[in-house]
Specification:
Length: about 200
């Protein structure tokens, strides 16, 4: 089971107010107030059986709207790049690149919450989910019946997105935790370009 979750996607630190809002307001604040980010992440995917749990880690960069680069370094070498028009998924182990139109790939996926436009509620129904484990939570349910995800939960601490919990239609739960986050860094445009290596299979969808 490989970590093909789009993340996508990601946490942002914003200017800190003197008091902290609920999960929905914190989400809207960091999406509206951040143009770019980079962070390390760990990801755990759990199936219907605990024995199916898979862990991965890597680094993510985002330039809103629509540009991102997820690099998985453990246990697989895998790169997911959104260049603003296309989504590129490169699996080094099997020497294969999959290409999709970015708007179709994002849609109401979790990546749209972080790398898409500011109009979050166009694709999601948002609901505050209270406080737990020192975090303020929100629950986001996609409006589209074609989404592969049932729900996305996001936990914030002082306007910092700390964790995302994604439940898909296949009985899997993906938990992504972020650390060493840098907000609004200057990112090279080359990071969001992808040219398939020579000799790999390229599959267009």
């Amino acid at each position: 089971m490989k970590p093909y979750t789009l993340p996508l996607l990601l946490s942002l630190l914003l200017n800190s107010p003197t008091s902290w809002a609920g999960g929905i307001e914190q989400l809207k604040a960091f999406v509206a107030g951040s143009d770019s980010l980079q962070a390390d992440f760990t990801q755990q995917v759990t199936g219907q059986r605990a024995a199916n749990s898979q862990q991965a880690s890597g680094h993510v960069m985002i330039q809103r709207p629509g540009k991102f680069r997820w690099t998985y370094t453990k246990p697989y070498d895998q790169v997911i790049v959104g260049d603003g028009q296309k989504l590129w998924l490169y699996d080094k182990d099997i020497e294969q690149v999959t290409v999709k139109k970015l708007d179709q790939a994002l849609g109401s996926s979790p990546a749209a919450l972080l790398a898409g436009s500011n109009d979050i509620e166009k694709a999601y129904v948002l609901k505050d989910a209270g406080s737990k484990d020192g975090l303020d939570w929100l629950d986001a349910k996609p409006k589209s019946s074609e989404s592969t995800f049932q729900s996305v939960k996001m936990g914030f601490a002082k306007n910092e997105l700390v964790v995302m919990e994604l439940k898909d239609n296949f009985g899997q739960t993906t938990v992504i935790r972020f650390n060493k986050l840098e907000r609004n860094p200057k990112l090279s445009a080359d990071q969001f370009k992808f040219v398939p290596p020579k000799g790999v299979d390229v599959i267009s969808e």
